[in-house]
Specification:
alpha+beta; DNA-binding; homodimer
Chain lengths: 141, 141
DNA sequence: CCAGTTAATGAATATGATTCCCACTATCGT
DNA sequence: ACGATAGTGGGAATCATATTCATTAACTGG
């Protein structure tokens, strides 16, 4: 036997372990900032993996639905993806220039949101909070 | 003379007072929530104004650049527009169901953002904050 | 180890919002 | 009223993302 099966993702997923899924995970795991689907696709090509753009989109969609990658929307409307460390709810501080990002937690924001919502009589409140700026490297020429 | 000119927007804008601009302003002024360009275009048609979609987009773009309307991005990526009361910086609490919105200020959030950014060494930090929930009417069946 | 089952792939095509093009029209200064 | 020119609008262009469907290949039972 030699534990033949499950060469891929390892988990008890209903997903087949494919070369493409592994390559995508590898890229997400090795690059630090937020990337667009197209950038990820390009990086895959650069690494010699010839993977269809549709497949990249498909995987990213599933991964983000499962909460395994976080997404933000750029000013242009393009979606950027990033594999995140913490499972817990958090926000991002993102460099406008290089895309580097820091995960930040926002207890203060959660509380503020809850208070404001309650005052207005709103329920089931969700929120989006993202911070954009210049990281130390890009902001200090 | 009889102060003939300036039939349109009134302000010292460099924009010509056109029928289309007035109609658009009228729609924005009379509808309460956030609307997509297409919804606004449809409403204009409903009111008997035959205005090109391109013109609607053009005006909305200028208005939002001038800060005369606020914009948010729906989950689908579509941009929603709304004429806002206050010139001052503010955020929105928006009903997921009916689109109604309340303007909220977020001193607490601004301060939190500034602090978090400073700690990470980021500069020139900007932020996006939007709250989505169910308004009193839509949340209480 | 092999063949069959079926999910996964990907090239091409579709979609849908937004923008661009450009000939035509209407506003405003004179 | 006239002319310069900003504004208009129909349609084509763009661009990210979704979908289709025939083909490929990952797992599974034998």
């Amino acid at each position: 036997m030699s534990t033949p099966a499950r060469p891929a993702s390892g988990r008890g997923t209903r997903v087949r372990g494919t070369r493409q899924a592994e390559a995508l995970a590898s890229v997400l795991g090795s690059l630090p900032g937020f990337l667009s689907a197209q950038q990820i696709h390009a990086e895959l090509g650069r690494r010699g993996e010839r993977i269809g753009l549709a497949t990249v989109y498909r995987h990213l969609q599933v991964l983000s639905e499962d909460g395994r990658v976080d997404t933000i929307r750029e000013a242009s409307g393009e979606i950027l993806y990033r594999q995140c460390r913490s499972e817990a709810h958090h926000h991002h501080l993102i460099c406008r220039v290089c895309g580097a990002s820091v995960e930040v937690e926002g207890r203060a924001v959660e509380q503020w949101a809850a208070k404001v919502a309650a005052e207005a009589g709103f329920t089931a409140v969700d929120h989006t909070v993202e911070l954009f700026g210049l990281c130390p490297r890009c902001g200090t020429p």
